[in-house]
Amino acid sequence: MQEVDFIFAIAVLVMSVVIHEVSHGYMANALGDPTAKYAGRLTLNPVKHLDFFGSFVVPVASYLLGGIIFGWAKPVPYNPYNLKNQKWGPALVGAAGPVANFIVAIFFGILIRLGSFYGFMSTPFMKISVMIVFINIILAIFNLVPIPPLDGSKVLFAFFPYQWRHIEEFLERYGFFIILIFIFFFLELIFPLITLIFRLLTGVSF
Which one from 21, 168, 169, 172 is the annotated catalytic residue? Predict the structure, then answer.
C-alpha cells in the first residue's frame, strides 16, 4: 500500500510541476514572448518537461529521507526582452507558476470540503485529493521564496528601483548557494505556513 501511495505521489508531483512550468510559458506567450511556444513546451505532455534529476532522483530521495515529495521539471524557456512590459512582465511570468499551483490546490480543497460534508468522495479519491492539495501548496510556497532562480525573486525584483540593480546581480550570481543554505537551515520555517494554508483550504489537519 505504501508503494502505491508513493507512485501516486510521484504522479501528482510530475503533473503539478508540469502545470507550473506550462503556466510560465502561457503567461510569457500572452505577454509577447513565444519562446516556449516555439520550443513545443506549451503542452501538458509530461515527457516534454521532465528533468531526470529533478523529476525522479530528488522526489525519490526526498520521500525516502523525510517522507515529503519534492522536485521540479525543466524550466520553460522564455526571453524577457520580448515581453511587452519590461518592468512587470518578468514578475507576471514568475508568479504564473505558483498561482497555477494555488488554483489547483483551491479546486481540490473545495472538492475535499464538499466531499467531507456531503459524503460523495471515496476514501482513495479523498487521499489523492489531499496529496494534490499538499504538493501544490508546497510547490507554490517554495517557489515564492525570493531567491534566484525561484519565481519569488522575479516578483521581488520588479519592485526594486534601478539603483538596487547591484543587489539583484549579487543575488542572481550567488542564488544557488543561498538556496542551498535556505534548504538546509531554514526550510522548516515555511512548513507552518504550508500546513496553515492546507487546513484553510481543506478543513483537514495534515
Answer: 21
- For residue 132, pLDDT over 80 is answered with yes
CB 68 within 8 A of CB 10: no
Active site residue 21: yes
Cis peptide before 98 (omega within 30 of 0): no
pLDDT band (50, 70, 90) for residue 65: confident
Domain span at 35: 2-202
What DSSP string runs through the chain? -HHHHHHHHHHHHHHHHHHHHHHHHHHHHHTT--HHHHTT-SS--GGGT--HIIIIIHHHHHHHHHS------PPPP--GGG-S-TTTHHHHHHHHHHHHHHHHHHHHHHHHHHHHHH--S-HHHHHHHHHHHHHHHHHHHHHTSSSTTSHHHHHHHHTS-GGGHHHHHHHHHHHHHHHHHHHHHTGGGGHHHHHHHHHHHHS---
Give percent of the chain with pLDDT exceeding 90: 57
151: nearest Cα among 159, 161, 139, 143: 143
* Residue 6 CB-half CA count within 13 A: 12
Which residue bears the cell 483537514?
204
Look at the chain and report how many structural domains it folds into: 1
C-alpha angle with apex 186: 9 to 53, nearest 5 degrees? 40
